[in-house]
Amino acid sequence: MCLVFFINGCNSLVSQFFGTHKLRSFEVSDVAEKGIGDADYVEISGARFEPVFVHQEASEPGSPPIIVYPVFAEGEGKKQAVLLAWTADFFDPCVAADSCISAGVRTLKGVVRPIPDDNLAALDSLREKGYSWVENPIVINQDEDPIDWYWNALMMLGAALVAIGMEAIYNRKKA
């Protein structure tokens, strides 16, 4: 277990400073044509939003509800999404007022992260509304940032200390 936490923390720390966790900027038209490669943290400019979203309660108690919405490129069909976005950070009354997403062209920033398994029914609801997207779409958790570097460093340090402590206790009992 310690090894898994140490490697995960180390990988994320290195990625954050030298790799895929750095903020990468794209135009929505480029995303539609080429994708985003291995980027994990993206800023996509020129994204067109329609006032369409699906509110989805989580099936597990304690998990937050989310809203899922399609994101379009300029000139693309109204029902063919370039990518999907979701967030758990929204003002609850907007759901009843049907105003969580406002129409317009703006920049979408967030972490590439799949929709939580507890909320996957939201995709079916979007399909029922007549929207479609490519197979295995890019899914962005809007306004989410990667974990701060110090948490990854703390994860590595904690895993190393627990492993060394366990080894010391084992060797002390053995002696």
List the helices and strands and how they pair.
Elements: H1 2-18, E1 23-27, H2 28-34, E2 41-49, E3 54-56, E4 66-72, E5 80-81, E6 83-87, H3 93-97, E7 104-112, H4 121-128, E8 132-133, E9 139-142, H5 149-174
Parallel strand pairs: 1-2, 5-8, 6-9
Antiparallel strand pairs: 2-4, 2-7, 3-4, 4-6, 7-9
Walk me through what this model shows.
The protein has about 180 residues and is an alpha/beta fold. It folds into 2 domains: about 1-20 and about 145-175, no CATH class; about 20-145, Beta Barrel (OB fold (Dihydrolipoamide Acetyltransferase, E2P)). It is about 35% helix and about 25% strand. The protein is built from 5 helices and 9 strands. It has helices spanning about 1-20, 30-35, 95, 120-130, 150-175; strands at about 25, 40-50, 55, 65-70, 80, 85, 105-110, 130-135, 140. The protein has a 5-stranded mixed beta barrel. A two-stranded parallel sheet has the order 5-8. Helix 1 runs antiparallel to helix 5. The chain is elongated, with a radius of gyration of 20 Å.
Sum this structure up briefly:
This protein has 175 residues and is an alpha/beta fold. It is built from 5 helices and 9 strands; from the N terminus they run αβαβββββαβαββα. It has 2 domains: 1-20 and 146-175, no CATH class; 22-145, OB fold (Dihydrolipoamide Acetyltransferase, E2P) (Beta Barrel).
- Describe the global form: elongated
Task: List SSEs in N-to-C order.
Answer: HEHEEEEEHEHEEH
Q: Residue-averaged pLDDT, rounded? A: 85
Regions with little confidence, pLDDT below 50 for 5+ residues: none
Terminus-to-terminus distance: 25 Å
- Largest sheet features: 5 strands, mixed, barrel
CATH topology of the largest domain: OB fold (Dihydrolipoamide Acetyltransferase, E2P)
Q: How much helicity do the residues have?
A: 25-40%
Number of domains: 2
CATH architecture name of the largest domain: Beta Barrel
Task: Label the structural class.
Answer: alpha/beta
Give me the number of helical elements. Answer: 5
Task: Please state roughly what percent of the residues sit in beta strands, choosing from under 5%, 5-15%, 15-25%, 25-35%, 35-45% or over 45%.
Answer: 25-35%
How would you write the strand order of the largest sheet?
A: 2-4-6-9-7
